[in-house]
Design brief:
By secondary structure, the protein is an alpha/beta fold. The chain has 21 helices and 18 strands. It binds adenosine-5'-triphosphate. Pfam families: AAA, AAA_assoc, AAA_lid_At3g28540, PEARLI-4.
């Protein structure tokens, strides 16, 4: 700190006329003379400090950025601000323009900030570099307070602001490592749009807030600053939505870990150790990916012989994550079947809070109606609430119905029709005790309902072409998917030959997912697909592989498409670079034309620079055409050779 303390006396107003008419040397002499009698004190905060980047400079930039706009309406405030936004932040960021000033009041004490910058040019005029610094001026008597209170306040506020403004990222696993290019989460779910019963939402938000504000408390009680949540409940009750709301509330990244994509305990450990601070690690459907019971019997992977991650490996990795490195981490497990999970995973310390997401209740329905239709009451509410109390219907199903029509009367009538159909199909099991706690409805039962109607309306029954030992069976898929399924079975044989699922209904539903993915790929062009969509297809394929569907051919194709998409992105970036350089060349050539008669060294340098830039664009063109050649086979169809 001592080295950044330059004691300079300052005057508050520097008149431009003074600068214009008095030579620099005399001005400096006068300033140093005046400074000796001033009670002001100035700290110079340069961009670099002791040879490396100065955190205080960055903090000042972020801190002042949040003040400048509100202060700009006050008198004497800066008339020019800088503004910008890059893809890693949510909102515009403002800043002081060079040579402008702002006064910040801290406990009533004025702190005057000035932003400066200067361009340094080397002797031969070849390299320009910009030095930037802030000057913080205050009365000498406040020096101790600035050092012990104000500067720490600036740093901590800057950290807070930076965290609030950063874009939340969604990380997925690729080839047993976190993907190097996480996507922006951009999920609209927040706690105000998430429908939940009674005080549950309030309790969760309070728990998250007390966790996030509890650094000192955790330190005091000697506990590592991490928290584990288990979210359980039937499909479609909002577990994933709650995770998105948590991430948006805390501005934490999500690390989505699909255990079936991890081949060994050591890979799992590696992944968990490389989760960053301020993040939520999500392990979804933990009961499906690893069979976690029968620990004593040493049957950790039980009926899932392909799963390489063991329960002890998972426990060790989680304990490692929870005990040693990093801070501000949340780990979330989701399951449809809480009772299938080994108690060791759920014990306090690993999972601090168990949150049950329930089937739709009258209160959840009302929140959904308010969100989707913008109404808080309606004559039909009574009837709907009555049916909802009688049957098991998920918030996702109700939301799906409400989304279909914007007119409240029509939408609610449609919902009644849907609920009555559901009731008459006998999907509700009124003998079940807890509405959401211990779902007896199988995860596939939602699709079972839809399959039922599909069978009568628009479906086709298929005889699997057995590839050998296993008896072929009848798969029922939607009519539109039948040609795809036929193609798959012909090309790849019975991909369910070793499938761990026995019921034809489940097998058919899973085949529909496979065909659905292929249908999407058939209809799409490479540039229409997003990485999120592709990652979600890969996640589905991984899930299906975890129950032994033979899908390595589809998995490989999706990986190839993801790689190709990355190349396309890379190539369009290169094209932009090339365009920019060409524009610069054009500009420089114009300047050279104007100065063609001078033989100054700058003119010669510039023409050399133009030649170098031209060579660079040629290289870029070559890289672009190589990249395009690599993805050219995907320009036609994405499913070529797949069926
Ligand atoms: N409680 C809820 N509040 C608001 N919307 C909800 C809620 N539950 C579900 N939805 C809607 O239903 C969709 C699916 O829900 P979501 O994926 O969160 O359920 P889930 O419990 O994670 O399901 P699964 O167990 O099948 O993964 C969401 O995108 C959202 O639109």
């Amino acid at each position: 700190m001592a080295s950044t303390l330059n004691v300079l006396a300052t005057f508050t107003i520097i008149r431009s006329t003074f600068n214009d008419f008095i030579p620099k040397e005399i001005r400096e002499y006068l300033w140093s003379f005046i400074r000796r009698f001033s009670s002001d004190f100035t700290l110079v905060i340069e961009e670099t400090h002791d040879g490396s980047s100065n955190h205080l400079f960055k903090a000042a930039m972020a801190y002042l950025g949040s003040h400048v706009l509100s202060a700009s309406s006050a008198s004497g405030s800066p008339k020019r601000l800088t503004v910008g936004k890059n893809e890693n932040v949510r909102k515009f960021t403002f800043g002081l323009d060079r040579h402008s000033e702002i006064v910040d009041f801290f406990h009533g004490v004025p702190m005057k900030w000035k932003y400066n910058s200067d361009v340094n040019t080397t002797n031969n005029n070849q390299f320009n570099s910009e030095s930037r610094w802030y000057e913080l001026s205050f009365q000498k008597k406040h020096a101790e307070m600035v050092k012990s209170k104000y500067l720490p306040h600036v740093v901590s506020m800057a950290k807070k602001l930076k965290n609030q403004n950063r874009m939340v990222k969604f990380h997925t696993v690729r080839r047993e490592r976190w993907s190097s290019s996480p996507v922006n989460l951009d999920h609209p779910m927040t706690f105000s749009t998430l429908a939940m019963d009674g005080d549950l939402k309030k309790t969760i938000v309070e728990d998250l807030d007390s966790f996030i504000n509890g650094k000192e408390y955790y330190k005091k009680i000697g506990k590592v600053w991490k928290r584990g949540y288990l979210l359980y409940g039937p499909p479609g009750t909002g577990k994933s939505s709650l995770i998105a709301a948590m991430a948006n509330h805390l501005n934490f990244d999500i690390y989505n870990l699909n255990l079936s994509a991890v081949n060994s305990d050591s890979s799992l450990e590696f992944l968990l150790l490389h989760v960053s601070n301020r993040s939520i690690l999500v392990i979804e459907d933990i009961d499906c990916t690893v069979k976690l019971q029968n620990r004593e019997a040493g049957d950790e992977v039980g009926g899932f012989p392909h799963v390489q991650v063991t329960l002890s490996g998972l426990l060790n990795s989680i304990d490692g994550l929870l005990s040693c490195c990093g801070d501000e981490r949340i780990i979330v497990f989701t399951t449809n079947y809480k009772d299938k999970i080994d108690a060791a995973l759920l014990r306090a310390g690993r999972m601090d809070k168990h949150i049950c997401l329930s089937y739709c209740t009258p209160s959840i329905f009302k929140q959904l109606a308010a969100n989707y239709l913008g109404i808080s009451n309606h004559d039909l509410f009574c009837r709907i609430e009555k049916i909802i109390e009688e049957i098991h219907v998920s918030p996702a199903e109700v939301a799906g119905e409400l989304m279909k029509c914007k007119d409240p009367d029509k939408s609610l009538e449609n919902l009644i029709q849907f609920l009555e159909n559901k009731a008459s199909e006998g999907t509700s099991d009124n003998t079940e005790g807890e509405r959401g706690g211990n779902p007896k409805q199988e995860k596939g039962s939602k699709s079972k309902n839809s399959t039922k109607s599909d069978v009568t309306n628009n479906s086709i029954t298929f005889l699997a072409l057995g590839s050998g030992s296993k008896t072929a069976g009848e798969y029922t898929v939607k009519a539109e998917l039948a040609p795809i399924l036929r193609g798959v079975l012909l090309k790849h044989g019975d991909i369910l030959a070793n499938c761990l699922l026995n019921s034809m209904q489940c097998r058919s539903s899973f085949l529909e997912i496979v065909c659905g993915i292929i249908q999407k790929l058939q209809a799409a062009k490479l540039e229409d697909l997003t990485e999120v969509e592709l990652q979600s297809m890969v996640a589905s394929v991984c899930d299906l592989e975890s129950v032994k569907l033979e899908l390595d051919w589809l998995h490989k194709r999706l990986d190839e498409i993801i790689d190709a998409l990355e190349l396309v992105k890379h190539s369009s970036k290169l094209k932009e670079d090339k365009k920019r350089i060409l524009q610069e060349i054009e500009q420089m050539e114009k300047e050279l034309e104007t100065n063609c008669h001078t033989e100054k060294p700058e003119t010669q340098n510039k023409s050399l620079q133009v030649q170098e830039m031209k060579a660079e664009t040629e290289k870029l063109s070559e890289t672009i055409s190589n990249t395009e050649a690599k993805v050219s086979h995907f320009q036609g169809s994405l499913v070529d050779g797949l069926l």
